[in-house]
Amino acid sequence: MAIIERSITTTEAFSVATPSTSLGALKRPVSSTGWKSWLFTVDHKKLGIMYSAAALFFFIVGGLEAVLIRLQLAAPNGKVLNADLYNQMFTMHATTMVFLFAMPMAGAFANYFLPLQIGARDVAFPRLNALSLWLLVVGGLVLNASWFLGGAADGGWFMYAPNSGPIFSPSHGVDFWVLGLQVAGIASLIGSINLIVTVLNMRAPGMSFMKMPVFTWMILVVQFLLVFSLPVITVALVLLMFQRSYGATFFDVSQGADPLLWQHLFWIFGHPEVYVLILPAFGIISEVLPTFARKPLFGYPFVVFSGASIGLVGFGVWAHHMFASGLGPVSVAVFSIATMAIAIPTGVKIFNWLLTMWGGKIWYTSAMKFAIGLVVLFTIGGLSGVTHAVAPSDTQQTDTYYIVAHFHYVLFGGMVFGLFSGFYFWWPKVFGKMLNEKLGSWNFWLMVIGMNLTFGPMHILGLQGQPRRMYVWTEARAGEGFFNLGFWNLVASIGSFILAFGVLMFLINVIHTARKGKQAPADPWDARTLEWLTTNPPKPHNFDRIPVVHHLDEFFHRKYESDPVTHNMRQVATGEELVRAEEAAADAHIHLPSPSYWPLVLAVGVGILGMGIIYGAPIMVVGGAVVLLASYGWALEPSTAEDIDFASPSDGGHTKEIATHG
Q: What is the distance in angstroms between the CA of the first residue and the CA of the last residue of the chain?
């Protein structure tokens, strides 16, 4: 079967049962290698890798769009982009980075590591997991197809009415934007339900909620945020789709509608979305910092409950994006207080991270550097964010580059640095090779310097009144001395190229590691959590036997015990020894999910159906037919496939059996 690639032990001779031919047209794909093994897989690890590959592709696309924006603004009266193309560029840059890079990359980490961290063999619904991936890919392709079919969306990533209506955006760009996000939103909603069920029902024996790793906790909080916020943006997108495609008047002022309805719907989703993006990064560095500080995470319960508090309070601060819209003093006061309140659990996390490092024997790996970078840069972004709780300050800063500086320090300095910390920390686990630390150091410093040079000056530009979303600025309005707009715009543009070169350094590191990287040991970082209690990369079935959990940081406590005299931790086993012990005591019968091509077919059908909304009923009929066919095939697909037996010389030739199932 496609996801059966290695046996239960590290050295074995194995035999694969002859595939049955009685399944007819609905027979499952049986390729174990090659492109089919990826297209049809339902293995959460392969899906996580494909999530990350798709997200990195869109990260590069969004980064190139950002560089073009900064080229346009590097000098007065820029000629790189005209006004219309500039509007499309900043709209697609933000949309791509938020919906096609940040969310999918967090999903990549969640898909790959959450089952491993809770001691599970896979997620609860493997085929739904594959459907989620392919819907994301289809949504991203639909969104970006607009570049080649008449022009991209041009109303900003928030798509405020009436700018998003057919009068001000007559091309199909906004239609592609709406449909692409609807498809990607379905993908996220399916994935969130899947991961919630996985955490609630598939934790290893003994793993209570307060023994779960912080990363798993933060992912769980994020999934609840998505479950409750995605329906809101889905409603908004459906209303906008009907207004643009079928003549509805939901946001048409001339028909008595209120365009602020869109703003409320968008930001009720949009502000929890900020925490959907940042909490996975918080979870990552909450694993990285204790590992490389050689200390347990300080105040584990506080970190967990502060993350949950951020998720809860995050639903009550959306209107601070709307202080300039005339909400009235009572609403402004309420949302100002809520915005101040959410800084408290965020600050708790920062102090917990600092106290985790305090007194530790810090190992300055690339992963650790990016984690420390997150703490510093996110703190800067958080402090500038608190100023938006003060309504007069927020009103003055709205639609200036001060806001751009703030959310890039939060999202790039926070989220992206956290994700890069995760890359360097878990790369040996995923691919069995160590990323180059020297290239990693260059990667880090170029990104730190480039990020601060790019977004630091935007605080000054914003306070000097340079508005967002203006495609040119003139020398006559540039100002003088330290506050000269020309100087700081040039610095920001230079910084964007340094930042881009830092990302390029990471890609060079990936290529170098794939070709010449050294093999990773079983426990390269002396890690703490369960995902390291298996080989690098993990086996198709994750664990040779389901672990029984007795402690928070179970893997660490299997390696170290407290000395009864000195109360210091002394090592009693190595990671390699623990992995070998698990192999020697492998379960005799292991069930794995079977591959399926129907999730891919169904996702393609949904994409065709969406295109039919733009281009007419015949295409909708074709898309609907594909969706019905895929649903029929999925429903009737055999629930089990042939068993695969592995004979291992290391256990005297005893045969262990792996059965695949749906």
A: 12
- The verdict on residue 389 lying in a domain is yes
Q: Which residues contact 51 (CB under 8 A, 6 or more apart)?
A: 104, 105, 107, 108, 111, 133, 136
pLDDT recorded at residue 20: 39
Of all residues in the chain, what percent carry a pLDDT higher than 90?
73
DSSP 8-state class, residue 615: H
CATH, residue 490: 1.20.210.10
Mean pLDDT over 632-656 rounds to 57
Distance CA 86, CA 72 (A): 8
d(C-alpha 197, C-alpha 2), whole Å: 25
33: number of Cβ within 10 Å: 9
Q: Which domain holds residue 303?
A: 29-571+592-596
- 177 residue type, one letter: W
Gyration radius of the chain over CA positions = 26
Distance CA 518, CA 509 (A): 12
Other Cβ atoms less than 10 A from the Cβ of 235: the count is 13
Asked if residue 436 lies in contact with residue 505, where contact means CB atoms within 8 angstroms, the answer is no
The answer as to whether 6 is a domain residue is: no
**Residue 219, in any domain of the structure:** yes
Q: 11-58 pLDDT, tens per residue?
A: 333 333 333 333 344 555 555 667 888 999 999 999 999 999 999 999
Q: What is the rounded CA–CA span in Å between residue 74 and residue 586?
A: 61
What does the pLDDT read at residue 593?
80
Q: What's the CA gap between 11 and 221, in Å, rounded?
A: 40
Q: Considering only CA atoms, which of 178, 179, 135 is closest in space to residue 157?
A: 178
Query: Measured in whole angstroms, how far is the alpha carbon of residue 414 from the centre of its chain?
Result: 13
d(CA 468, CA 164): 18
Cβ–Cβ under 8 Å, residues 176 and 614 = yes
Residue at 17 is within a domain = no
- CA–CA gap between residue 358 and residue 556 (Å, rounded): 20
Alpha-carbon distance of 394 to 411, in angstroms, equals 19
Q: Map residue 641 onto helix, strand or coil.
A: strand
Q: In what order do the strands lie in the sheet with 640-647?
A: 13-15, 640-647, 655-661, 589-593
d(C-alpha 245, C-alpha 254), whole Å: 18
Contact 483, 417 (CB under 8 A): no
- Give me the phi and psi of 494, to 5 degrees please: -60, -40
List the structure tokens of 17: 């049962």
